[in-house]
Specification:
The chain is built from nine helices and no strands. By secondary structure, the chain is mostly helical.
Length: 197
């Protein structure tokens, strides 16, 4: 079975479950939650750069999925439908966070420096250095504009095709590629002094 055939059969399973959920099937809903829980939490954590409230937002996504079920129509892949719900929640959360805390560039660098310093003093081995770099990368991703961040997370961590990312972001494939290009350029610039060290 080819990779695309495997994706198609997985989508067929998801759509069949969602059609059962549409008619109030709680067991089918539980199966969808099991299939997508880790992906949802992981995507939200990467998008927000903060794993602590990723569980709550992923849970909200499933609540919205349940509420949207009666209106569900198979217009696209199920994952596109579900990631659109996640996108809306994450973008709303990003706006709330931006209103609560507006960091200057200096403050952001200070926070990054404190994180790096704390990790570096704990243990000088390679594992600690990798953990430090992961934190810095997560923070740099969290600082990207919403659409760039979502495109990058869906492409890099969920291995989603450009067409599906375009559907989730409600934009064109060329716009997705542009978002990815700008996101990667920004990350390369932001992380250059860590990667050169």
């Amino acid at each position: 079975m080819s990779l695309s055939e495997n994706h198609d059969s997985e989508d067929a399973i998801d759509v069949a479950l969602m059609m059962r959920v549409k008619h109030g099937d709680h067991q089918a809903f539980e199966q969808l939650v099991e299939r997508y829980q880790d992906v949802a939490v992981g995507t939200v954590a990467k998008m927000l750069g903060n794993p602590s409230n990723a569980q709550d937002i992923a849970q909200q996504a499933f609540v919205r999925l349940w509420k949207a079920a009666p209106r569900y129509k198979q217009k696209a892949k199920f994952s596109t439908f579900f990631f659109t719900i996640i996108r809306n929640l994450v973008f709303n959360e990003s706006k709330k966070f931006a209103r609560r805390k507006t960091y200057s560039l200096e403050q952001r660098e200070e926070v990054l420096f404190e994180q790096v310093s704390d990790d570096a003093t704990r243990s000088p081995d390679a594992e600690a250095q990798q953990a430090e770099l992961n934190k810095v990368v997560d923070q740099a991703i969290a600082n990207l504009p919403d659409k760039q961040r979502m495109a990058l997370v869906l492409r890099r961590y969920e291995n989603m095709p450009y067409e599906e990312i375009a559907a989730v972001l409600k934009t064109s494939v060329s716009a997705v590629k542009s978002h990815l290009f700008r996101a990667r350029a920004t990350l390369k610039e932001d992380l250059s002094h860590y990667l050169d060290a």
